[in-house]
């Protein structure tokens, strides 16, 4: 499994998208799930950079790991910011999204889009690192039988 | 059969977005909104046919635009690609913005 | 891939014409043009989907509009019925007005 | 041949159009030539009212005569204003219509649209009356053979 290290800053987002996009294309992932995957990764990467590093006044790496196995593409983001499990965060409800804009907090869309954008989203904390894991079914087996 | 005439002058803010709006480029988008808000437009028209990506950071700027220019401000999102429409729907923003093929 | 943004605010005069413009009703049309000209619009958008008839008296008001609001003024004639387009073409006015299905 | 007399004022235009339109529909004339006929009549009627009567400070009648014969509809406008033959008026050239609007006189479109809107346009002066005659082919014979 390749590991590519980006600086944990917002100008890494573009490169991360390009990297994952290339891999998704190679995996034969369709346009729509590819877009949703890129969006999910962008949301979590943004949170790591802004809420994880920047808000704490720290800096650190953002690693991208990708693995293509039979029928699925697995992308992992690793960072060294304080532990944060997005799945433990109170998700906005249906009612929240139906609120008129004036009555609605401006944020809170990122984790919602992440969880709804991939087939599986997992969080782990290991070796002082957050591991945000995105899994999408590619529909095609990696190697023809 | 007679003639019916309806006439009005509107200040319309047009913004064309081409490429990708992530948390970094959303700042440029926000700056443009701030610049245009000063002129007090009646309507905001976003031309997004070539918008290839927009994250929640971009959506926040859309919400910011309404808050800045007045929530009564009609916002038209013109020719949004399918994925962009999907994101607007998932976040309930299709209730607050007019997602259309043409402004007029 | 980066983000390209183009932004501008325009004053747009919208006029919807429904029914028939002959030499009599052309006067109402002309009054509306005069009223709107005061506001100094950048563009004039005529919504004529339900315009069932327009004589040369109506075309004169169109020419008057350009002269009044500035000949550089972009005029869009939106959703003109076939017969109206034909009249514009016969009188060479299609060179000076944008005959379109949609303004934006 | 029916003769219907309207006052020679602009508020007669609507009624004249409705009258001719009904006759054209009865004659089975298609939408497009009907529109062109109404336009031609409107242009000449306007000229009679404004250039014939109003400009001379006079008033007078505007008569509409209609005749449906085998394969053609003939409409005649009669008025008692000073004699004026539209066909003798200098018609705008192709170059005129290609001029930019700034360099172009604002009028002069009416007779052009008239002549180009019907299959035949004739002018006669008889009995102190202008007779402007519009003829369109209806394509269908009046009575089936
Ligand atoms: N990596 C992180 N570290 C700390 N807090 C986080 C992290 N990611 C998300 N959060 C918290 O969760 C909230 C919701 O995140 P999100 O749904 O992406 O919306 P937004 O970032 O637009 O507020 C954030 O406002 C933040 O308080
Ligand atoms: N019935 C009429 N009596 C006198 N003059 C006429 C009459 N009809 C037309 N004219 C003259 O012919 C000119 C051209 O007419 P027309 O092509 O209809 O354009 P417009 O009326 O818009 O100027 C008029 O400007 C007018 O001077």
Q: What's the shape of chain A?
A: globular
- Beta-strand percentage range of chain B: 25-35%
Low-confidence stretches of chain B: none
**H-E order of chain B:** EHEEHEHE
Q: How do the strands of the widest beta sheet of chain A line up side by side? A: 1-2-3-5-4
Give the helix proportion of chain B (percent range).
25-40%
Helix fraction of chain A by DSSP (H/I, runs of at least 4)? 25-40%
Strand order of the largest sheet of chain B: 3-1-2-4-5
Radius of gyration of chain B: 15 Å
Summarize the biggest pleated sheet of chain A.
Answer: 5 strands, antiparallel
Helix/strand structural class of chain B: alpha/beta
- The tally of beta strands of chain B, per DSSP, is 5
Number of helices of chain A: 4
Q: Which cofactor or ligand species appear?
A: adenosine-5'-diphosphate
Can you write the helix and strand succession of chain A as a string? EHHEEHHEE
Give me the oligomer status: heterotetramer
* Helical segment count of chain B: 3
Q: Of all protein chain pairs, which has the greatest interface, and how many residues does each chain bring to it?
A: B-C, 36 and 36 residues
């Amino acid at each position: 499994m390749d590991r590519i290290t980006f600086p944990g800053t917002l100008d890494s987002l573009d490169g991360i998208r390009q990297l994952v996009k290339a891999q998704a294309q190679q995996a034969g992932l369709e346009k729509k799930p590819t877009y949703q995957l890129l969006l999910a990764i962008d949301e979590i990467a943004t949170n790591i950079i802004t809420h994880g590093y920047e808000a704490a006044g720290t800096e650190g790496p953002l690693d991208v790991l990708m693995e293509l196995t039979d029928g699925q593409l697995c992308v992992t983001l690793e960072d060294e910011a304080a532990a944060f499990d997005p799945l433990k965060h109170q998700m906005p409800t249906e009612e929240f999204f139906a609120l008129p804009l004036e009555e609605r907090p401006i944020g809170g869309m990122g984790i919602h889009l992440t969880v709804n954008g991939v087939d599986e989203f997992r969080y782990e904390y290991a070796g002082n690192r957050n591991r945000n894991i995105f899994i999408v079914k590619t529909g095609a087996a990696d190697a023809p039988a | 059969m007679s003639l019916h005439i309806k006439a009005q002058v509107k200040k319309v803010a047009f913004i064309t977005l081409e490429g990708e709006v992530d948390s970094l480029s959303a700042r440029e988008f926000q700056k443009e909104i701030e610049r245009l808000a000063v002129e007090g437009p009646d309507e905001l028209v976003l031309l997004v046919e070539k918008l290839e990506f927009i994250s929640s950071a971009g959506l926040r700027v859309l919400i910011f635009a309404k808050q800045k220019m007045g929530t009564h401000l009609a916002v038209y999102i013109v020719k949004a690609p399918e994925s962009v429409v999907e994101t607007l729907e998932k976040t309930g923003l299709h209730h607050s913005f007019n997602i259309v093929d043409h402004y007029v």
